[in-house]
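Example record for the data management plan.
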Amino acid sequence: MTRYNAVVLTVLLGHSASIVDSFLSPASPSTKMYKRDCSSYSGGLKRSRQENSFERKGVILQAYGSDDNEDDEDMSGALNDRDWRAFRAKLVMSETDSERDPERLAFEALDPDIWAYDTGKVIEKGVIILGGVEQDFGFGLRQQYFHKAVMLVLDHEPNKFTRGIILNRPSSKVLLDEDGKGNISQWRVWFGGDVQGFDSMTPEIVCIHSLQKEEVISKSATVMKDIQWTTFDNAKSLVADGYAKPSDFWAFCGYAGWGPNQLAEELDRKSWYMVATDSNTLLQEMQRQAFDQNVRNAGLDTWTNLMEMIGKEEIASKTFDSFDDLMLKEWARENLLSDVEKSSYDSKIRSTFAPSTQELNHKDPIDKVIEQAQATARGDYLGPGTLVRASSAERSPFLLSKQEFHKSIILIISDDENLTAGVILNRPATKGVDLHIADKKLGTKRIVTIPLRYGGEYTVRGQNPLLWLHCNKNLRDSGVGTPMCVSRGGIWSCRPEEVSNCIAEGLAKPEDFMAVSGISVWTKGEKGLARGIEGEVRVGNFEIVPQRKSQTVFDMLLSQEVLSETNISSNLQISNEAWAIGVEEKNSQEQESQYGNFVLDQNGDEYQEDDSRVFKSKVKLSQLSDDALKSWIAAFLLGQPSLE
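Corresponding structural encoding:
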């Protein structure tokens, strides 16, 4: 087919000549294409017993503009049998035999209905968005569900809005629906995106299907050939009328959305890859995920398969079992398991329930005073001046979000009926605080720099942005500062001028003080999720540091330095040692789980695995949590995407 014919066919396709030309130009990255051996689809993809992976034979074809005179009737007839993307794919593959590498032809016959190619930056309904892995900042620390996502664009209005659903996040959650006549139907619901998703007060469910009945089509919107979508209400109505079964639909809760030009800008940052593929490939992958994959694998195989189909297998292989992969698996474990499955895992780790602050707040004031006095006598008082440290659970409660709290040491500075406020003490930042010291005896001045510490994400209006602290007995005896605790021991706060004067008079050294910027807040309310620091301790997210150990912990943290790329590891080592010291000694046997290593999979069957490691990985959860903290420090304190 000549280039002239290609331009004429753009009228039939309803797309601009520039778009079609991009698929015919040998210089375009869109011309790489993969076709899978049709034999791999007889009975589904072939699983390798040794590798437990999916074998596929294929060939990457480089398309060139051809001057052959092909059968125009055959080409135009393709529009009646296939969607326009399949026709475009045929154009991509229309190179002549003389231009092909003979070695690439040594394969069995290929199914023309199985195809995929990189569309460059073309955004349109029915295109697939693959999560990119080449951008500076990935999704390891936030929004892990977008990492290596496979999204289908349902709607695209240029310069307005783009909506898509994630296809490779199957869950084992089931929605029970009663039709009003006592009939209950079960709908397996997959995670479709973060907008109106699982955690939303008004979730939106989109149902994907490939049904061809006219009654179904009339209530559906076509996305691409053989793939349509409809609302959950429409799907239930079709089931009630006998035109379909719940198993005919893939139900997705939530969607992903982009504002005007947002997706195009993210493409420029290599956050995504745009791919066109056939409906058979998508339906086969979704079917495989539904029945062959554990939801904790988070659909990673589907992303890898499509990357290989578009010639990006090298990029895919380099990121296998990466930090972001492992974080995604942990996100899937936390969010995609059914309640039954999740309870069988969580019961072995720690309790996930805590009393609401309604119980904590509605105590008699006299009872509160008595409890605080008793707690002080025991050494586990919880209030202003108390140090708490993050949980020692193997699976850190701060793995997927708020990683700055992992192995943190926090000083409680206030606690009332509305909220608890505290400051993190073991997170030095890249900035230091310059102390201008005047030596009164020698009449000289010098500048001493101490680390500025990140205390939390909030600031208090109208107050000094820095909180100065010391835990020095000589200074306490001299009355320098104000005690944080009613016992007048432990950690004291002080003013900047007091710090300078004490150093100038020789009462203390610069290294005796901490300067903290920002505070952390735990709100209180009637629900268990907003419970203040007391509720956080009860649920196991934090532990009280015994008062007798406060001095040792504080002194150890004073040896940390202003953060830099070269000392991040040494600073973390000091931080972890101080965190380890702050624990109350327990019998090691008491910390072992009373449960065995058997858990339920998504089919209700028992199998044995190591709960201390990430699913299908050799990486321990404790190590992943430490890596997540280090990545958080690199990203948010150093401003670097990684330290590799």
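Summary line stored alongside the record: The radius of gyration is 30 Å.
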